[in-house]
TrEMBL record:
Domain Methyltransferase type: 18-120
Name of the featured protein: Methyltransferase domain-containing protein
GO biological process, alphabetically ordered: methylation
Keywords for the protein's UniProt record, in alphabetical order: Methyltransferase, Transferase
Region of interest called Disordered, as start-end residue ranges on this chain: 232-256
């Protein structure tokens, strides 16, 4: 299940791509299939080992061009082990909402992205995410859980503040929003409840079969219910002035 739309985030064979905070590797796999030289990086050794295994299996099965390459490694998003201007493209999918120093993460991402390169950033969308937080503390008050909710304009301000130039946005995964609302209402760890099991079965069917009806429904619902907000930006070839983020007005000290 891809969150990044590769028609808006084009890759060419031979591009150097970093999937930053790769998790289970879904975007790294797609970049590898498209002929890129991929690095999948995550702080979780188990996720990295799983991703490395799947990349090796893809290589053996001939699912990627022989000229492409891919590796997975454990690393810190706030101290990336790469020189400046290393990558042609970066993907940062469902990561920033977990990181206390999200500005530091973006600064590192911009550092290793070459001038003219592209970055795709995805975060949980404000509306559906706010519902999840209201329904369940357990959804986000866990180790490594979500620590903030971004509005679209806030995320775009973060990107501009890091010196990036946004060029497009969209929403994704509308069918997944009600699933997470159900889980939050019933219990995020309760996967045996009938409504949760039934909805999960629908999502798996949609993922495997890609039927026209559910694909059309999701496209129509994404602007309203899309679970993820996706933003695309480029790193200018010449440095741009940093754009200060909007500040919340301070209370008037002269009033009671």
């Amino acid at each position: 299940m891809l969150t990044v739309d590769f028609t808006r985030f084009p890759l060419a064979p031979g591009d150097r791509v970093l999937d930053l905070g790769c998790g289970a590797g879904r975007h790294a796999f797609e970049c590898y299939r498209r002929g890129a030289h991929v690095v999948a990086l995550d702080r979780d050794p188990e996720e990295v080992a799983t991703t490395a295994g799947w990349l090796a299996a893809m290589r053996e099965a001939g699912e990627a061009p022989p000229t492409a390459s891919a590796r997975a490694l454990v690393g810190d998003a706030l101290a990336l082990p790469f020189p400046d201007d290393t990558f042609d493209a970066l993907i940062v999918s469902e990561v920033m909402e977990h990181i206390p120093d999200d500005k530091g993460l973006l600064a590192e991402a911009v550092r290793v992205l070459r001038p003219g390169g592209r970055i795709a950033v995805t975060v949980p969308r404000h509306g559906p995410e706010r519902v999840c937080w209201a329904l369940s503390d357990a959804y986000h008050r866990v180790e490594g859980g979500h620590i903030r909710i971004y509005r679209a304009d806030e995320l775009l301000a973060r990107l501009r503040g890091a010196g990036l130039r946004p060029y497009g946005t969209h929403h994704a995964h509308a069918l997944h929003a009600p699933y997470w609302w159900l889980k939050c209402a019933i219990g995020v760890d309760n996967d045996t409840a009938l409504p949760v099991r039934a909805y999960h079965k629908l999502l798996v069917w949609d993922l495997m079969k890609r039927p026209l009806a559910t694909r059309a429904a999701e496209r129509a619902l994404n602007p309203l219910l899309g679970k993820s907000f996706v933003a695309y930006a480029t790193k200018p070839r010449t440095p741009e002035p940093r754009t200060p983020e909007p500040r919340t007005a301070e209370p008037d000290a002269g009033r009671a």
